[in-house]
Design goal:
The chain is mostly beta strands and about 600 residues long. The protein has two domains: about 30-465, Methylamine Dehydrogenase, Chain H; about 500-595, Immunoglobulin-like (Sandwich). It has four helices and 42 strands. The chain has a five-stranded antiparallel β-sheet with strand order 2-31-30-29-28, with no helix packed on it. Strands 5-4-3-35 form a four-stranded antiparallel β-sheet, with no helix packed on it. β16 (about 220-225) and β17 (about 230-235) form a beta hairpin. The longest helix has 13 residues, at about 1-15. It is globular, with a radius of gyration of 27 Å. The two termini are about 15 Å apart.
């Protein structure tokens, strides 16, 4: 019975979606099902450097920039300069060799760019342009003149704008939330109106959230060239669709900005929190104040709003990383949502935007009582969603991103724990998983329990070798970020306890999985050398501390078998738990894990 329980423990630990429950987490590639994943190259920024890695975690290329990088359709790397997504005013495009091919700096007084940006093709201009989010200062006098409640203080007030510049850095279009507001307390002002009847505008006197610095905190945006529309997301739980095509006149920036400020620039669609325009219930504490409801609010703290691109499964739908903040759930967790904004209450695609409250909601009960969640109103426009079964396994309070892949899989970046994974659509199985090894304290093979964002990555993207940025480039795999050879689980590892072969370090050198594993008294560790060389085999605990040196000498070519009895270098038995054994041969390393339980 004891051995059966041990094997069960291995299987549970091996399932990738349980990663974040652990205090000691091996970093880099943790799992890879090559038959189900969309195999390619992953791009992410961390610590001021952008990394391009293959599926095993080998570094293919790096750039000396790393805030929120992405490849452009022109084959360049586009990113903000400075390393902080929340505060940026300069962007650069770099070629493969790191040379700057274009840059732009926002230097206007009263503008504070932050978070997201995009290089787009403007069909009316017939040229590429650049868009970004920026907070704009508003004076107290402007706030009061617009109809803000005079009982509040508006010093330092700001609202987000979306700015578009041409390749020469000239502002050619600008849209500002402050031009699309409504209020119902000052009847003599042009902004006066009933909020419920004006879903295309934002309430200046939003309940509990008066206008202030970084009022809406918009953190992501996207542009749809086919529709000539822009979508922008606020961290407070809504995203908004804006008409770019009918508010832009080529060669006339002043007229374009005036059009964008007119009613033509009012929201065409909004999703996430209908209570903000009095067409739904807000979150609230229930009569039993130990419980709460999310009301009709669908999202909280969400990031990376986007249209699913043409040619991909779900094309034309929205996708968003719903962080799950501020939803009044007893046990919060993050979700991925795919949203069809054209669905009505009967599920019919109308071909035009339908206000989500009109489409209606399904009342959904928690799938498992141990999640301790109240039943929720889930919008009928949400056509697919993903969340881990264990709510503690996948949760990020800030940042994060999502990407639909050509094979229908969805690629996810969970910022807090530098956690990247790929999920299949039908069975929601994880088919690839990676933990960012770059921390505030340097590169780590093992990530220990730490505060959120210790090894953060704001976003990540998956590309294939035929992308313009990678085509005809040298994609030879180098070392992993930590320098250790890949040591990840495969589908056979989570369905079998039999030992498996190792990964080559140099030539035919191999390190086999110890056997038995788990073990109680002794376990055998085997390795093969293609050529004679200096070899060390050392055992480490999960904190990275050396436990036992099994071998440190020159060895001729051949097969070797070592035995470990669960004692340290002083002959004292080690505590039960997981350990790593690392073979070093000519400075090349292979590592594997094993479980000791007695």
């Amino acid at each position: 019975m004891k051995r059966i329980l041990l094997i069960s423990a291995i299987l549970i630990a091996a399932v990738p979606s349980y990663t974040q429950e652990c205090f000691y987490i091996p970093t880099e590639t943790r799992y890879w099902d090559s038959s189900k994943s969309f195999n390619g190259y992953t791009l992410f920024g961390s610590g001021g450097t952008t990394y391009l890695i293959d599926m095993e975690g080998h570094v293919i290329h790096t750039w000396r920039i790393g805030t929120n990088p992405r490849f452009t359709d022109n084959g360049t790397l586009l990113d903000a300069v400075g390393g902080n997504p929340s505060n940026q005013n300069q962007w650069k495009e770099l070629d493969w060799n790191g040379n700057t091919v274009w840059q732009y700096t926002e230097s206007r007084s009263g503008y504070y760019p932050h978070h997201d940006f995009a290089k787009i093709y403007n069909p009316k201009l017939k040229d590429s342009t650049f868009m970004y989010i920026a907070n704009r200062d508003i004076t107290s006098a402007q706030c009061l003149a617009a109809g803000c409640d005079p009982a509040n203080n508006y010093n330092g007030a700001q609202m987000d704008a979306i700015v578009e510049v041409d390749r020469s850095g000239n502002v050619i279009w600008e849209w500002w939330f402050f031009d699309h507001v409504v209020q119902d307390i000052s009847s003599g002002k042009s902004t006066y109106g009933v909020v419920k009847d004006n879903p295309g505008k934002i309430d200046l006197n939003m309940r509990g959230n008066p206008v202030k610095s970084d009022w809406l905190h918009c953190n992501s945006m996207d542009y749809n060239e086919d529709l000539d529309l822009v979508v922008v997301n606020s961290v407070h739980g809504e995203f908004y669709v804006i008409d770019h095509g009918n508010t832009f006149i080529a060669g006339k920036p002043d007229s374009s900005i005036m059009l964008a400020a007119s009613t033509k620039g009012d929201f065409l669609y909004r999703f996430g929190d209908p209570a903000k325009y009095d067409q739904g219930d807000p979150p609230s504490v229930l009569d039993n104040w130990e419980k709460a409801t999310s009301g009709h609010k669908q999202m909280g703290g969400a990031h990376n709003i986007q249209w699913i691109k043409s040619g991909l499964p779900g094309a034309g739908n929205f996708m968003i990383f719903n962080n799950g903040q501020n939803l009044f759930e007893l046990t919060p967790q993050s979700y991925i949502y795919e949203i069809n904004p054209y669905l009505n209450s009967s599920g019919t695609n109308t071909g035009k935007f339908v206000n989500p409250p009109i489409a209606g909601y399904n009342i959904v009960n928690s799938p498992d009582r141990n999640l301790m969640k109240e039943k929720k109103n889930v919008s009928k426009q949400i056509v697919w969603k993903y969340s881990s079964k264990n709510n503690t396994s996948f949760f990020s309070t800030i940042g994060s991103g999502v990407q639909r892949l050509p094979n229908g899989n969805t690629f996810v970046c969970s910022m807090n724990d530098g956690h990247f994974f790929e999920v299949s659509p039908a069975d929601t199985l994880i088919v690839w998983e990676y933990i960012n090894p770059l921390t505030r304290d340097g590169k780590k093979k093992i990530k220990v329990d730490n505060y959120p964002t210790y090894n953060a990555a704001f976003r990540a993207y998956r590309y294939t070798s035929d992308h313009p940025a990678l085509k005809d480039k040298d994609l030879t795999a180098g070392e992993t970020i930590t320098g250790f050879d890949p040591d990840y689980l495969t589908p056979s590892d989570i369905t079998s306890s039999e030992p498996t072969g190792g990964f080559a370090a140099t030539g035919g050198d191999q390190l086999s999985q110890n056997y038995p594993n788990p073990f109680s008294y002794n376990t055998s560790i085997s390795f093969d050398l293609e050529n004679g060389k200096k070899v060390t085999v050392v055992i480490f605990d999960l904190s990275g501390k050396q436990v036992r040196s099994l071998l440190n000498q020159g060895c001729p070519a051949g097969r070797y078998n070592l035995t470990w009895d669960g004692t340290n270098d002083e002959g004292i038995r080690v505590p039960n738990g997981m350990y790593f054994y690392i073979l070093t041969a000519d400075n090349q390393k292979i590592s594997k894990k094993m479980i000791y339980s007695r």
